[in-house]
Amino acid sequence: MRSVYIETYGCQMNIADTELLFGHLGRNGYQRTADPQSADVILLNTCAIREHAEERIIGRLGDLVRMKNGRPDVQLGIAGCMAQHVRDKLMDRLPFVDFVVGPDAYRRLPELLGEPGGDPFVDVRLDKAETYADIAPRREAGVRGWITIMRGCDKFCTFCIVPFVRGRERSLPATAIFDQVRQLAADGYREVVYLGQTVNAYRHDGVDFAELLRRTNSIDGIERIRFTSPHPSDMSAAVIEAMGQCDKVCPQLHLPVQSGSNRVLASMERGYSVEQYVDLVDRLRKAKPGIALSTDIIVGFPGEEESDFEATLSLMRQVGYDSAFMFKYSQREGTKAAKWDETVGDEEKSRRLQAVIAQQEEQSAAINRKLIGSTVEVLVEGPARRRDGWLVGKTLHFKTAVLPAGGGIAPGAVVDVRVSEATAHTLVASA
Ligand code: SF4
Fold first, then answer.
1. Does residue 155 have its Cβ closer than 6 Å to ligand 1?
2. Single pTM value for the model
3. Residue of the CA atom closest to atom 1 of ligand 1
4. Mean pLDDT of all residues in 20-41
């Protein structure tokens, strides 16, 4: 048996793809190793969303090539979004890379790898039909299982590289998804998270996302359902209604807004206005009272004036997000916005980023502090990393909570705890 080591960068979809790769390679004569020094195949599953992710990966390749030295049979390769994005540059700049595979070429990987010391290869063809529906991922044991229910994206927001590197939108058959959910339940997972670049655009053979949620809600053994990331434009009345009616769908949603300025949203081609987004938030809050919301924010998009930036700060206050992922705009070659001149300098982008982070931290801390004294339900995941003798888990609202170990509480337990302290990122509870 040959051994494979995979290092994963980027989003949760990439982590799920690594599980898929382990499943597929595992059934084709490869065993997983956690040690690159002893691996026959070393694979970096990469991200192309931001330039700095790519630079990090190039640096890491330099380290790995030193491990490969003296072991000519070892095959070092790159998979994922960056493989698709910069394949030509990769092979020119990094001649020691043996193979490059894009996100739609994983099925062919065992065959392409062939024998030890085989010829270098590149396979980055995008495939409009590939969903890997028949390939079972190999997951680490846990309490939360992630299932990719659709791949690709048709939205083409002007800043985003995803549609170019992951191809067009396609969904898995509902039966293949439910098989995975039942398997997760049988393996002891308590929570399922549906994944997709625009997850609520899911549609296959007449089953839409609302219907998928309803049917998942009736699967025994799974107690919590989440999904990420939905696109505001695909958040139909039917999906909102299903969220409200399905008791297992958690009161928590990551709803990317990107900017609080209609002018910037229009040039990002996001497909909604601030007013429509706020109306959507209102409808979600009616359907799922107390829902916790998080978002993505980009500052310094080309053309973003101070007034646009102020509008973003104002929208963030108005919605009252529980948390946010906030970034400086990073130009990605191949996107529409990459053809436009940057109008916000890096220093100014940094100032704006610091300002949104500071505001959000304050807001997150204030929201969490209101929970002090209340009882929250926590799905326990395992030992807390930074507190000996404590456990960590997530609340229904996807907040991290730590609680004292003991009393027979094991990973997978769902416990009610009383919040005694709170910071912007963590709730401290007493059992
Ligand atoms: S919806 Fe927009 S931001 Fe999200 S993946 Fe598609 S193109 Fe990118």
1. yes
2. 0.95
3. 155
4. 95
Q: Is the CB of 96 under 6 A from ligand 1?
A: no
Please report which confidence band the pLDDT of residue 66 belongs to, taking 50, 70 and 90 as the band edges.
Answer: confident
Which pair of tokens denotes residue 1?
């048996």
Report whether residue 160 contacts ligand 1, using a CB cutoff of 6 Å: yes
Task: Residue 396: give its domain's CATH number.
Answer: 2.40.50.140
What is the percentage of the chain residues whose pLDDT exceeds 70?
Answer: 99
**14 C-beta closer than 6 A to ligand 1:** no
Same domain? 150 vs 241: yes
Dist. CA 83 → ligand 1 center (Å): 19
Determine which residue's CA is closest to atom 4 belonging to ligand 1.
Answer: 197
Taking 90 as the threshold, does the pLDDT of residue 64 lie above it?
no
Of 225, 250, 275, the residue at which a domain comes to its end is 250
- At 61, the amino acid letter reads L
Burial call 26-45: b when 16+ CB within 10 Å, e when fewer? beeebeebeebeebbbbbbb
Phi, psi of 47 (to 5 degrees): -125, 145
Of 84, 162, 233, best ligand 1 pocket probe by most atoms within 8 Å of the beta carbon = 162
Nearest atom within ligand 1 for CA of residue 153: 6
- Sheet holding 99-101: strands in order across? 30-32, 2-8, 41-46, 75-80, 99-101, 121-123
**Cα 174–Cα 194–Cα 105 angle in degrees, nearest 5:** 75
Best probe residue, ligand 1, of 197, 255, 257 (max atoms within 8 Å of C-beta): 197
Q: Determine the structural domain holding residue 416 and report its residue range.
A: 375-430
Mean pLDDT, the chain, integer: 94
CA of 155 to the centre of ligand 1 (A): 6
What pairs with residue 428 in β-bridges? Answer: 402, 421
